[in-house]
Amino acid sequence: MTDRHALIQADRGQNAIAIHLVTKDSLAEWTKRLSAGQRAAIAAQKFEGAGYEHAIVPDGDGWFAVAGVADPSALSSWCLARLADVLPGGTYRLAEHETGRALFGWVSGQYRFDRYRSEAKDEEPRILLTKDARAIDPALREAGAVELVRDLVNTPAEDMGPAELEAVAAALAKAHGGRHGAELHVTKGDALEQDYPMVHMVGRAAGRAHAPRMIELEWGDPAHPRVAIVGKGICFDSGGLDIKPSGAMLLMKKDMGGGAHALALARLVMEHGLAVRLHCLVAAAENAVSGNAFRPGDVLRSRAGITVEVGNTDAEGRLVLGDALARAGEKAPALVIDFATLTGAARVAVGPDLPALFAREDATAHALIEAGAACDDPCWRLPLWDGYREYLKSDVADLGNNSTNGFAGASVGALFLDRFVPAGTDWAHFDTYAWRPAGKPGRPKGGDALGLRAAWHMLKARYGA
């Protein structure tokens, strides 16, 4: 793909093709300024001013575009995203309106994952000019973070295992050195068995080629509030001995989507220099099947000292996150946010477009929901209902890792995680899908960031630069 930094540029009067924005209601009045031939051209393309529609209009020796939007004065992230995908390559500017949030979608709409295509398209970029030069860098960084999530999730497990996630974290640490710079610490092997026993148990069956690890990155002034960002990094989930059917296993390269979100959010925090002491943790493992795979009925030790009876080896993500959240809590963070492709129940509850949000503090939940609504990354809060804690009771251990009654699966998964976050800690959990089953303008089918931008805008509002 073309370097995204070329896709939006400051408007300094360059030659550019005009884009006019109309609504269904304003189209008739707007066309009165056009010639009969231009009106005929619009009619021939059956353009009616609906959202995501566009038409090419001849204009002397050149042409301009007209596009339908809901409200030209308040563009969403996605209003121009389809144009960025379907217009011919070239340079464009909005004729009468400001670009606003649509800068992000203009870049996002030109995302391509072509790593494995032998004949990838070499497309001429569509460049959008904007009068708001200060908005360019934030929009590019935000689009770049989403692109990082998409790339990591779309990459097959053979090329995106625990070692490759570690390499991504190492590259971030290298890019953000200097005073109070990023430091990377990785625990694996025998030390992992001692320090993060549930991560070790979940990942040991994958062998040395895909050995599990706890990836930790710290950055920022230690005097600033500590913010922990935690991600589930199950690089492939076979289900373990409770093996998934083949159809359910097909998309399990995306089970590290939570880790991808955590790394992308950490990058945004460092790029913008938020006034926080960042602690990013990714529990990376592959849930495989072999002679030393953990078994239903096993009782696992955890870093927190809580013992866990395994009722289902396919509920492994909460196990590795339990160790990661316990580690994060040891340093008394002001806020913990975790991302995980944790439960199918969340998808049943809110579908593929909305990450399920759980939070201890109402103020934090409201801040995340409002931030998501403002940046077109909506999330939906589900309950941490104390009455469901009994579903995790075990006859032989402190806690079971799953419920057998089929009720409130997303809440039960979140309540399991809640046991590993120290009491009184401000904590939010995103049960995200990390995948688009069908493409939309600016949001192609495949891996995607869901909840990332909501969390980023909330952090930016709370901690500033």
- Poorly predicted runs are none
Main beta sheet, described? 8 strands, mixed
Question: Shape from CA axes?
Answer: elongated
How much helicity do the residues have? 25-40%
Count of domain modules = 2
SSE-based structural type: alpha/beta
Query: What is the CATH H-level superfamily of the largest domain?
Result: Zn peptidases
CATH class of the largest domain: Alpha Beta
Number of helical runs?
15
Beta fraction: 15-25%
The CATH topology of the largest domain comes to Aminopeptidase
CATH architecture field of the largest domain: 3-Layer(aba) Sandwich
Q: Walk across the major sheet and give the strand order.
A: 7-8-10-9-13-17-14-15
**β-strand number:** 19
How would you characterize this protein structure?
With 465 residues, the chain is α/β, with parallel strands linked by helices. It has 2 domains: 4-125, Leucine Aminopeptidase, subunit E, domain 1; 141-463, Zn peptidases (Aminopeptidase). Helices cover 32% and strands 20% of the residues. The chain contains 15 helices and 19 strands. The strands form 4 sheets. The chain has an 8-stranded mixed beta sheet, with helices on both faces. A hairpin with a 2-residue loop joins β3 (54-59) and β4 (62-68). The longest helix has 19 residues, at 136-154. It starts with 7 loop residues before the first strand and ends with a helix.
